[in-house]
């Protein structure tokens, strides 16, 4: 990848590099879980200003965490084909500039959430960043095959923030929603890691597909998916949701389990391939999005 000195970038290129540093596609997925959680907490339409402030603060927090992650992982990003285009690898930005940027937007996140949402939400966002940076990126990612299992907790915190933004407290419902995302993360990410197994192996990152066989990996994906199905069905009675969510969770969980089971069966007969793993990965994103949207619809329609 050709290095581009920061001084030669246009203003548009510089802005684009800073945006890329935050990993916006990951932030989008986090926000998809935050807003429906606010609907469930409110039992209806939450105040628009509160939603905007929560999304702004949450986006800044997640963006800062992702930027810190890129600074720390710039050495392995340079090795992996999937990440060679990141701004710190191409030279579009210096590590110092990226670190300052990450710190600034993290501070802004805390200020925004504390001033316009509440202190609990601000502390939760900061805690998620600390967990992602120190526990996942600095400790687990390069040392343990359970890296994404434990590290996935950071990505589940937005539902806690969404709930606390509305209620200024926590309860069993956000805890169960947290569990849903926590359990969803391994099968979602392992399916992607199957596609980029060679990348992770070259970078000496012990993702499950690197340290275990495809058969073992697909078995664990299937087990987590079944547990996820059960957890998603538990959301209904705990959150007092109605038949719209219940039917949706039942069908979505069944489809997710079907895709995971099919991949597992193919792996046992040595017929699994990257394309089928990626289908599971893409479906997992749709699964989480639709599942949470159904929660909001259920609340709005059935009360």
Account of the 3D structure:
This protein has 303 residues and is mostly helical. It is built from 15 helices and no strands. The protein folds into 2 domains: 156 residues, UbiA prenyltransferase (Tetracycline Repressor, domain 2, Orthogonal Bundle), CATH 1.10.357; 133 residues.
How would you summarize the topology of this molecule?
Layout: H1 11-21, H2 24-42, H3 48-72, H4 74-77, H5 87-90, H6 95-116, H7 119-140, H8 147-151, H9 153-167, H10 172-195, H11 197-202, H12 208-211, H13 214-239, H14 243-268, H15 274-302
Rg estimate, integer Å: 20 Å
CATH homology superfamily of the largest domain: UbiA prenyltransferase
CATH architecture of the largest domain: Orthogonal Bundle
What name does the CATH topology of the largest domain carry? Tetracycline Repressor, domain 2
- Overall mean pLDDT stands at 94
- The dominant shape is flat
Order of helices and strands: HHHHHHHHHHHHHHH
Content of β-strand: under 5%
* Annotation field: number of helices: 15
Poorly predicted segments: none
Tally the beta strands: 0
Secondary structural class: mainly alpha
**What is the CATH top level name of the largest domain?**
Mainly Alpha
Q: Give the biggest beta sheet.
A: none
**Tally of individual domains:** 2
What percent of the residues sit in helical stretches (DSSP H or I)? over 70%
How far apart the termini lie comes to 54 Å
Short descriptors:
single chain; 303 residues; mainly alpha; Tetracycline Repressor, domain 2; 2 domains; 15 helices; 0% strand
């Amino acid at each position: 990848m050709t290095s581009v000195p920061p001084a030669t970038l246009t203003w548009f290129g510089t802005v684009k590099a800073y945006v890329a540093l935050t990993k916006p596609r990951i932030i989008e997925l986090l926000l998809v879980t935050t807003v429906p959680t606010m609907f469930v907490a409110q039992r209806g339409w939450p105040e628009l200003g509160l939603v905007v402030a929560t999304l702004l603060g949450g986006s800044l927090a997640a963006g800062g965490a992702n930027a810190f992650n890129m600074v720390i992982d710039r050495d392995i990003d340079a090795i992996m084909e999937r990440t060679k285009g990141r701004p710190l690898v191409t030279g579009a930005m210096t590590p110092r500039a990226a670190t300052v940027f990450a710190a600034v937007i993290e501070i802004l996140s805390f200020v925004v959430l504390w001033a316009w949402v509440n202190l609990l939400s601000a502390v939760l966002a900061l805690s998620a960043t600390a967990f992602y940076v120190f526990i996942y990126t600095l400790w687990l990612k390069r040392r343990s095959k359970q890296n994404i299992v434990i590290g996935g907790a950071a990505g589940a915190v937005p539902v806690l923030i969404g709930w606390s933004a509305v209620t200024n407290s926590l309860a069993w419902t956000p805890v169960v929603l947290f569990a849903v995302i926590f359990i969803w993360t391994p099968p979602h990410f392992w399916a992607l890691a199957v596609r980029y197994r060679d990348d992770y192996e070259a970078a000496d990152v012990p993702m499950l597909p690197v340290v275990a066989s495809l058969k073992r990996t697909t078995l664990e994906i299937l087990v987590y998916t079944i547990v996820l199905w059960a957890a998603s069905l538990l959301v209904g009675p705990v959150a007092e949701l109605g038949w719209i969510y219940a039917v949706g969770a039942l069908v979505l969980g069944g489809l997710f389990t079907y895709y995971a089971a099919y991949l597992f069966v193919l792996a046992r007969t040595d017929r699994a391939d990257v394309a089928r793993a990626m289908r599971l990965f893409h479906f997992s994103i749709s699964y989480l999005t639709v599942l949470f949207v159904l929660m909001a619809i259920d609340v709005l329609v059935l009360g």
